[in-house]
Amino acid sequence: MVTIKQIADLCGVSRGTVDRVINERGNVKTETRNLVLNMIKKLEYQPNPAGKALSARKHNPVVGILIPAKGNPFFDDVIRGIKTAAEKYKIYGLNILLHSIRGYSTEAQLQILAKLKGKINALIINPINDPLIINKINEFVDSGVFVVTLNNDADESRRHCYVGTNYVNGGETAGALLQMITKEKANIGIIMGSSKVLGHRQRLEGFKYNINKNPDFKIVDIQENDDDDICSYDKTKEMIMHHPEINVLFIVAAGVYGACRAVLALNKQDQLTILAFDTVPTTVEMMKKHIIKAVIYQHPYRQGQRAMQLVFEYLVNGISPDKSKHIMKNEIKILENL
């Protein structure tokens, strides 16, 4: 393995000079810096992991995490992915400050962001698509904080990258799947999370785009549940009672269990085709009871893990993301392939 000493000897400089070039510290003449960098590239030098860990620990990198996980079981696997990766990177001194909120309150997100200001080197956030949140993200970026949007994007912000699914494609996939399953006329009731969330709106747009191609498919009503099961129960029950013609229920985000419990309370399970997202335990339970026909899976564990990996590569290795969007595949799941 190539060492710093060997690079220094070949370049005719001190080890300290090579170290300053590698870690971008102190003043090094441009000519000398280019000489060292070219030698590093030529010899394919890789820093010693123990040395990197020691260097990173001196800087005590801290990652702030803000996600709407309270009451939303989808984020259980996202958090598991984040924590698994964070545990792996502990040797490098990487620490996390995890903040979880319920639902999509702009004020709640702003309060957490205010607490994190000046305390973190990176931010992983599932942002509300609100100008106030976008401005805060930009403030963090301008102050040198590395920002990753997770599971939901704020593409008008200057965040460094996004990790999640293609929401428009998720909606289009759901629309195509529904047309494969339902050959008769479809009167569709939609339960979505929140119009404050860019991804939820995009998923709905993709769904509408696909079903609008079919003259026998019609959206009867759309209700928001703020990704909350209790609210989802009430909104679904009310919607079905007011629109007995509904024979398809499309659940755009979370609140799946609450919606299904409303269907069962009305004894409508044999009269409705239900499509949803993700494979949280309560959703799997409803699939096993044949209440839900199919779901679209968006790899929550991998999303959390990938977000932390990008943060680690940037903070410890100095590697910027090679693309602005890291997309997980939308995958159709039925009972037989869960």
Automatic annotation (TrEMBL):
Superkingdom as given in the UniProt entry: Bacteria
Keyword Transcription: yes
InterPro entries assigned: HTH_LacI (IPR000843), Lambda_DNA-bd_dom_sf (IPR010982), Peripla_BP_I (IPR028082), SBP_2_dom (IPR025997)
Keyword field: DNA-binding, Transcription, Transcription regulation
PANTHER family: HTH-TYPE TRANSCRIPTIONAL REGULATOR GALS, LACI-RELATED TRANSCRIPTIONAL REPRESSOR
Identification of the protein by name: LacI family transcriptional regulator
Molecular function in Gene Ontology: DNA-binding transcription factor activity; transcription cis-regulatory region binding
Protein species of origin: Pectinatus cerevisiiphilus
